[in-house]
């Protein structure tokens, strides 16, 4: 028996991160065989064609030009007001819904998840997301003494499975009054799927039907971590307009993050943007989430907040950042197009990829497939029901041939 002095609810907590595990295996292979031999498709950040981590050049320039006092000083708990305005405007672009909105600064999108779980579910409640999901959702729920349940993301035609979504919403609301649903779109991690606008209509119909029972409270947490790599700016944000005129007992929260959109992953800067028809709900949103920030991390990174407001308030700088980002978006598209084309040729079944950093191959034996791929010096991330390939991190030259090798590995395991 090992000795434990942790509180009972904390005993046995241990973060086994498959992504970092797979990345470590790839690094070991690089050390042994050299970088040129190894395909490392485990990393969730943009690497250029030389496999160097990308910082958008204008983002770097602006960041380095900030006065040191703006980098080191404390910031208001709720976030710099100019940052909150910039984050809100950049999240919506031309698709601001007809509703009240408020924003609270958070430690990235992860911070939005943390606060939403803490403040919009009861202890012991169950949150809902799709069966393909970013692993930390579950860690965040469990650490907060909540649970996570899933609906089936795709139907038999590989479209959004509205029936499964509806039945899970009904099932959970029969047991609890608050329901937080996490929807990661557009450019979902790990599949690359984006909900179509009519699929959003279906989601909102289900939510509105459930909200007819006034004792129920629904929160739709829209995780937009990959929004800036999801297609034309206003097209991939068009769904946001639909958050107009929702009932008072439905709150939408956008999880805005600077990690990917501004290549500021480790700077831990984001914002939760609340959208509601009710002035009271929005005031409460600002109040309770600021309080939780004070209790969790105090204020967040001032320099990175100033970076965003500086970019946003200078049209030429913003245009330059958007241009640079669109070039990297095109680079990721080219890589994914090679993979999708070759997967088709090799009869390799993929989940529907629309955009984003990752694509996924479903498998009954993902660990074995990944192990087999190691023989070809290919490293990807084994998920519960498939293998995730980070097209954001692999140069086109190394993507070429990868789908065929995956098809071979799938055939023998
Ligand atoms: N949501 C998804 C789906 C992600 O993949 C990530 C990061 O990998 C995040 C949210 C949160 O990122 P951050 O906390 O760095 O903003």
From TrEMBL:
The protein's UniProt keywords, in alphabetical order, are: Aminotransferase, Pyridoxal phosphate, Transferase
Q: Name one Pfam family in it.
A: Aminotran_1_2
Stated name of the protein: Aromatic-amino-acid aminotransferase
Transferase in keyword set: yes
Listed cofactors: pyridoxal 5'-phosphate
Gene name of the encoded protein: tyrB
Q: Which PANTHER family match?
A: ASPARTATE AMINOTRANSFERASE, ASPARTATE AMINOTRANSFERASE, MITOCHONDRIAL
Species this protein is from: Sporomusa sphaeroides DSM 2875
Q: Which residues are in the Aminotransferase class I/classII large domain? A: 39-400
Give its E.C. classification number.
2.6.1.57
Query: Kind of enzyme, top EC level?
Result: transferase
Is Transport set as a keyword in this record? no
Which family does the similarity line name? Belongs to the class-I pyridoxal-phosphate-dependent aminotransferase family.
Assembly? Homodimer.
GO MF annotation list: transaminase activity
């Amino acid at each position: 028996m090992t000795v434990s002095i942790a509180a009972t609810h904390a005993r046995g907590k241990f973060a086994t991160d498959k992504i970092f595990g797979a990345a470590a295996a790839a690094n070991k292979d690089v050390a042994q065989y050299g970088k040129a031999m190894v395909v490392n498709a485990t990393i969730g950040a943009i690497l250029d064609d030389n496999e160097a981590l990308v910082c958008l050049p204008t983002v770097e320039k602006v960041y380095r030009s900030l006065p040191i006092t703006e980098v080191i000083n404390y910031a208001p708990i709720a976030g710099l007001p100019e940052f909150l305005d910039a984050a809100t405007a950049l999240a919506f672009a031309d698709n601001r819904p007809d509703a009240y909105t408020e924003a609270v600064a958070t430690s990235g999108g992860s911070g939005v998840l943390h606060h939403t779980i803490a403040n919009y579910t009861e202890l012991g409640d169950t949150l809902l997301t799709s069966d393909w999901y970013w692993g930390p959702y579950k860690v965040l729920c469990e650490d907060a003494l909540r649970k996570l349940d899933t609906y089936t993301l795709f139907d038999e035609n590989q479209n959004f499975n509205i029936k499964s979504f509806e039945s899970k919403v009904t099932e959970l609301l029969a047991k609890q009054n608050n329901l937080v649903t996490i929807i990661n779109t557009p450019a979902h991690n790990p599949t690359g799927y984006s909900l179509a606008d009519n699929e959003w209509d279906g989601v909102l119909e289900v939510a509105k039907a459930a909200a007819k029972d006034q004792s129920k409270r629904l929160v739709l947490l829209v995780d937009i971590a990959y929004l800036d790599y999801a297609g034309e700016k206003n097209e991939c944000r068009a769904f946001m307009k639909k958050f107009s005129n929702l009932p008072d007992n439905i709150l939408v929260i956008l999880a805005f993050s600077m990690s990917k959109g501004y290549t500021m992953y480790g700077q831990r800067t984001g914002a939760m943007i609340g959208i509601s028809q009710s002035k009271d709900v929005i005031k409460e949103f600002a109040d309770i989430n600021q309080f939780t920030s004070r209790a969790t991390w105090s204020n967040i990174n001032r320099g990175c907040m100033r970076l965003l407001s500086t970019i946003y308030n200078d049209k030429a700088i913003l245009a330059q950042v958007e241009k640079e980002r669109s070039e990297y978006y095109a680079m990721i598209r080219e890589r994914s197009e090679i993979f999708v084309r070759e997967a088709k040729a090799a009869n390799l079944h993929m989940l529907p990829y629309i955009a984003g950093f990752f694509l996924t191959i479903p498998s009954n034996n993902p660990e074995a497939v990944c192990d087999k791929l190691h023989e070809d010096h290919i490293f990807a991330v084994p998920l519960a029901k498939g293998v995730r390939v980070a097209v954001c991190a692999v140069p086109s030259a190394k993507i070429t041939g990868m789908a065929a090798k995956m098809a071979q590995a799938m055939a023998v395991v």
